[in-house]
Amino acid sequence: MDAVQAANSGHPGMPMGMADVATVLFSDYLKFDPTQPKWADRDRFVLSAGHGSMLIYSLLHLTGYARPTIEDIAHFRQLHSPCAGHPENFELAGVEATTGPLGSGLATAVGMAIAERHLNAQFGDDLVDHRTWVIAGDGCLMEGINHEAIGLAGHLNLGRLIVLWDDNKITIDGAVDLSSSEDVRARYEATGWHVVSCDGHDVADVRRALAEAVADPRPSLVACATKIGYGSPNKAGTSGVHGSALGEAEVAAAREYLGWDAAPFVIPADIAAAWKAIGAKGFQTRCEWEERLRAAPAHIHTEFERRMGGFLPDDFSLEAYIDSLIAAPQKVATRKASELTLGAINDLLPETLGGSADLTGSNNTKTKSTGPLTKDDYSGRYVYYGIREFGMACAMNGMALHGGVIPYGGTFLVFSDYMRAGIRLAALQQQRVIHVLTHDSIGLGEDGPTHQPIEHVMSMRMIPNLDVYRPADIVETAECWELALKDATGPSVLALTRQNLPQLRTQKSENLSAKGAYRLVAAGADRKVVLIATGSEVEIAVDTAKALEEQGIGADVVSMPSWAHFDAQPQSYKDDLLPHHVLRVSIEAGTTFGWERHTGIAGLRFGIDSFGASAPAEALYDHFGLTAAKIAPQIVAALNN
């Protein structure tokens, strides 16, 4: 109450209503050690109802985490305070996941639970044996992603996942029954969950319900009947306490009602000591776990620490694989190139955990070494996510946050719209999650405009800390995969073709994709034009350059698989590659919006600023003017003017 009041901003209702439930969870069930917040076998606690962030900040402080300090809490929601409006995983140890968009935290927790069972199957109970706990509100259970997440969790029988539902029957607009009359318990039961109810303000009843949830082999929903804003004599049980400070008078009235006479941000010594004792309970458990880790065979010990630390093997490299491509060039779609590359990767990296949203045969994300992960065999390395793109994205975030695995998953690029919020959260949380997004242009052909992405690559490029790769051939595809794997600080998108592309790189070199853009073809005649292209359009740029050279017009071809990597290059490199004194031309089968960044206003931009059409790929490229025969004359005309 005091923190929200000091900020005059925040959500006091949920923390007040769920305080009793959280106390039972932290004191009797949650396995954690504040002195080692990254202990690998700790329970994971996700506050999916992230607006109630003061609940987790209070719990972390009271149980003995180094931060937040009481000063941090007093500066709740202020610039540079780690106590942000919604919990951020990069701000505080003990915050397992960034939550805010309702439902995303619960869906992320599903991924954590998958990772726990997968690693348990690989390393055994001595090293991996923990639970994932979630506090979720009505909004988390109402959002569409909840349906995707719980369906997957029930199908995989993730019995170590327990969701504590703050069943307070209030949303921002008012009572839940203004907008919803569904039987939430029945919905969870229908997806294979165990469901139990309790009085969220009766400690003994909460303890009973949690004991039932722990004992049941299915994932559990614990419906905790609570009163939002519990303790506020005039606002409890109303939407008015959801997202606004109580006001000084109501805070004073609540203090009196609760018998709390300490000053703001002062915790009485006896209460502080009791909470510190709760926080200290996990110390011995953690020490015993460390003894088991030390006693494990050396190769198990080393491999477990490597994987949980997120480190690739010291000798990991795709150089030998790329050398084999140079030795035997091949013309394949980049989705197929990705599959071939993954074959090498999955043999080298046992931590990769792949999947697809029901498009395995189209995304080419499964390889020989990745058997299915099922409720009967969690050691598998391939998740059949079903038609759950958003749920897949958030589950992969949870896997990455849990540690020990590198998740990748596939769908069509156009369906990135379904999962954008999950991709954005991966970028915000700085997690290594790899999205294989195939059928990346009108080149997919006859499926038509609903399936043909236009604005999607550019919209992905707009997300901060997201590497977007659009490789031009099999070599670039391998290079981009290597870059995505070696970046442990953020997610990646690989935008890949359905149609076959020639291998344009036939000479051994360094990883040129690491520069983001490079000169693939140097002008023969006096350079007048630089053609900049990505993906399947690099082939068109090469053909266009040949047509221009035949007319005595020198043309460089620059392949630009990654805008972000190019932006990171020294200015001298960028100026040499894209000099301002020549005509710069972009070619990409998508929106031209944004390409003026590289072509300048005076440059030319060939792309598609409308929706696509249903036809074979070659007919579509001709229709939209993306052929050398149609591009070259326009370049000549521009030079002559």
Automatic annotation (TrEMBL):
Cofactor(s) annotated in UniProt: Ca(2+); Co(2+); Mg(2+); thiamine diphosphate
SMART domains xref list: Transket_pyr
GO MF entry, a single one: metal ion binding
Keywords from the UniProt entry: Magnesium, Metal-binding, Thiamine pyrophosphate, Transferase
Chemical reaction(s) catalysed: D-sedoheptulose 7-phosphate + D-glyceraldehyde 3-phosphate = aldehydo-D-ribose 5-phosphate + D-xylulose 5-phosphate
Protein EC: 2.2.1.1
Enzyme superclass (EC): transferase
The Transketolase-like pyrimidine-binding domain, residue ranges: 332-503
Chain positions of site Important for catalytic activity: 11, 242
Family of this protein: Belongs to the transketolase family.
Subunit structure, as described in the record: Homodimer.
Designated name of the protein: Transketolase
Organism: Sphingobium indicum BiD32
